[in-house]
């Protein structure tokens, strides 16, 4: 696909959920597949990223683009900070950044993963924390206000080797006190703020 700036998002037509051609499927005009999605907690906004550096932010009701954000590389992780229009953007060989959807301005830049190839980043936000699964197979838990690293969660060398080069899911509970990570054939839940592993499977 072409990595040039996308043109206007296509006007959505009515269709069944999952049917090709509905609003989200029409968010791109450059032929890239979808690599990350996130919804704001009030349900008004949907952010969609592709293998290019562009992030489309859509009105969830109409499918119309309300903002276009240009990241510095391919985007693989998106998350809205609760109670705001701030969007966390992560990806390959790039810093994690926080953007204001209302004006399209960069609000913060945090040090990011230094991945290559197909290694990717996933980010999930909850409350005052952001958990970011980075290219080395570890999860950095950051303050959503300052970006400071509060904890680093380690699945262990065996899991990292088995999960090397693969995307892996990260989830945060509503209170921001637990982080769940799946990597390779293993899954674990960590307690915050200390980062102790409290359950494990695999």
Low-confidence parts: 10-25, 115-119
Give the biggest beta sheet. 4 strands, antiparallel
SSE order in H/E notation? Answer: EEEEEEEEEEEEHEEEE
Between the first and last Cα atoms, what is the distance in angstroms?
A: 38 Å
Beta-sheet strand percentage?
A: 35-45%
Computed structural class: mainly beta
How many β-strands, per DSSP? 16
Mean pLDDT: 75
User: Rg, please?
Assistant: 17 Å
The helix tally amounts to 1
Q: Which sequence of strands runs across the widest sheet?
A: 1-2-3-4
Shape: globular
Helix share of residues? under 10%
Structure explained in plain terms:
- The protein has 202 residues and is mostly beta strands.
- The protein has one helix and 16 strands.
- The longest helix has 7 residues, at 157-163.
Sum up the structure in keywords.
202 residues, mainly beta, four-stranded antiparallel β-sheet
